[in-house]
Specification:
- By secondary structure, this protein is α/β, with parallel strands linked by helices.
- It has a single domain, classed as 3-Layer(aba) Sandwich (Rossmann fold).
- Helix content is 37%, strand content 12%.
- The chain has seven helices and five strands, in the order ααβαβαβαβααβ.
- The chain has a five-stranded parallel β-sheet with strand order 2-3-4-1-5.
- Strand 3, helix 5 and strand 4 form a beta-alpha-beta unit.
- The longest helix has 13 residues.
Length: 174
């Protein structure tokens, strides 16, 4: 998938998804994006990355697909740069378990860490309006509790997991 500059070709391609319910949902979600968060999970090779590339194509380019293999600071920078478009993160399993809860809470909360300059003045706080699409072979809840000794999040503590809604990817036949 690559941008070719012709919206009519893209729309024709989008109509051809036929009965692939998840693909149709992704296209609709990408076109109506504002404060939406979805996480597609499932076994390897069922089409999760293809789904994310399709979502990116709505916005113009597959270069919008980033990896979860990042630090919390790196994810903050990418979220800041993609505010008001889409933040697409592929393969949640690559996120270090030590950074998972911090990163997920930060992304769902829409604001970065408060920092100071060397002269003890406040740096500008990064913020974003998050349309997040994610994929992985595990759920967000599983990732957040992956570290040994981590507690399961309940109630208000489960906010990132609840905000990044999961959908089992069943995209065979793509």
């Amino acid at each position: 998938m690559a941008p070719d500059g012709f919206g009519s070709r893209w729309r024709a391609c989008a109509r051809d998804v036929g009965d692939f319910r998840r693909l149709r949902r992704a296209i609709v979600a990408a076109r109506r994006a504002r404060e939406r968060r979805d996480h597609f999970f499932g076994n390897s090779s069922v089409g999760k990355t293809t789904l994310l590339k399709l979502i990116a194509s709505v916005w113009g380019e597959s270069v919008l697909v980033h990896s979860w293999r990042a630090t919390a600071n790196g994810l903050e920078g990418v979220a800041d740069r993609t505010s008001d478009i889409v933040l697409i993160l592929d393969e949640l399993g690559q996120l270090d378990a030590r950074d998972a809860a911090t990163s997920l809470y930060m992304l769902a909360g829409g604001a970065g860490k408060i920092r100071m300059n060397r002269d003890a003045t406040l740096k500008d706080i990064r913020s974003w309006r998050a349309f997040i699409m994610s994929s992985g072979e595990m759920t967000v809840e599983t990732k957040m509790t992956q570290m040994r000794g981590a507690k399961a999040y309940t109630g208000r503590d489960a906010a990132p997991a609840q905000r990044l809604r999961g959908s089992r990817a069943e995209l065979r036949g793509i």
